[in-house]
Amino acid sequence: MATLETDICVIGAGSGGLSVAAGAAQLGVPTVLIEKGVMGGDCLNYGCVPSKALLAAAHAAHAVRDAARFGVRVGAPEIDFAAVRAHVHRAIAAIEPNDSEARFTSLGVRVFRQHARFTGPDTVTLADGTAIRARRIVVAAGARAAVPPIPGLDQVPYLTNETLWENATLPAHLLVLGGGAIGVEMAFAHRRLGSAVTLVEGAAILGREDTELAEGLKRVLRDEGIALIENAKVLRAEPGPTLVLESKQRITGSHLLVATGRAPNLSGLGLEAANIASTKAGITVTTGLVSTTNPKVFAVGDIADVENIGPRQFTHVAGHHAGIVIRRALFRLPAKVDYRALPRAIYTDPELAQVGLTEAEARAGGVKASSLHWKMDENDRAIAEGATVGLAKITLDGRGKIIGAGILAPHAGELIAQWGTAIAERAKLSAMAGQIIAYPTRAEAGKRAAGSYFTAKLFAPRTRWLVRQLRRFG
Ligand SMILES: Cc1cc2nc3c(=O)[nH]c(=O)nc-3n(C[C@H](O)[C@H](O)[C@H](O)COP(=O)(O)OP(=O)(O)OC[C@H]3O[C@@H](n4cnc5c(N)ncnc54)[C@H](O)[C@@H]3O)c2cc1C
Q1: How far is the CA of 92 from the centre of ligand 1 (A)?
Q2: pTM
Q3: For the chain, which terminus, N or C, has the lower number of CB atoms within 10 Å?
């Protein structure tokens, strides 16, 4: 079989691979895109989109349940889970055309719907034997649910983020194993839709988040009626499904969701044939996303482990990576990843969003960090809407530079954007404190937190003395 020659060959049509392929093809560069599964990858089919669609249904149920608080009386919500599921699949279907084979073909990309593996340093071979030699190969093969080696788990039917959306009935009692963003979001969504939910975590729930924000969200989860079990060692799983803990606790649910982290899709890629270094965290790449051992190969998205710091598994990171690959491979520019202003959000209600470093992360990196706060119970919009849980928190380095921000509030994922801009553009704290922000909005909380840095100075005896002197001039 003849070898197909191309400039760019992308393995994986998820968030990262699609962005690289679309960019390259639109710049007129011969591009091949290979996908063994569904177009759109995790985000569209098994991740961001279905999870946010399910959360939207959950929030709607809550709004009905909560309406009486505002003097609006409606009955208890009735959950038609088949219709909820249909809504989730409609959301996927509405976005699907953007990621479709037809769209990419029309952009000029040669799309192959097959498994790909490396058979040489610049060559990839498809399942049907077609060999593709490329000037640059971009590995965008993503990650999948990492299932922990718990004895008996393989004998118990469990759900992962890939199978959850096919679940036909609302779980009577959902056991969620794993207290990271995915576990917390799905626990929250199911609880608000009416399931009993128990969330079991081996360490601290939301352990990567700022402690104060995480504690605030955990209080919310408990108030919603979710049972939280932290620092739990699961000894074994039994049919039920039942989780047996070291503490002798046995928890039985109707369904079990495993959300204990993500493992990169390395196996079957034939990385050895192309001398591509990897660890169990992913493909080891430089800050320019180039394999440390094969200069023709880039890795992007969930599978890319930049300088062994561990992957940052978000769709917006995959997009950021794609931009770097385009600049490097096509424009020969020395672009590099920049995670200084990297945001993340957990889409519960309230949402927990973080950009840049938390105070603890900064301190662990040797920075003399401090934080400024503004609580949502002092925010007029939050009071007017009766949703006063949460706070805005800004992290500063020893010289008062903004290096992070965290917000626990409704729509925190949106509110955090201006703090990302502040970090990326190195905005001064005084500029953030001096913004004119529409009243009443929750964005005021961030401005007030920034302003609190200057309050002591503003009302200090020296400033008061100065104002007294100036009064003399009439
Ligand atoms: C439940 C859940 C919720 C999430 N929510 C959010 C969110 O709200 N916001 C956010 O930013 N991120 C979220 N994420 C993370 C986000 O989905 C991922 O970061 C993103 O999909 C990564 O994109 P990717 O291109 O690296 O990989 P993927 O989207 O996983 O795409 C990789 C593709 O490569 C294909 N592939 C793998 N190996 C081969 C091979 N050998 N040959 C051919 N094809 C291959 C796969 O079939 C797959 O389609 C969520 C994830 C999950 C699981």
Answers
A1: 14
A2: 0.96
A3: C
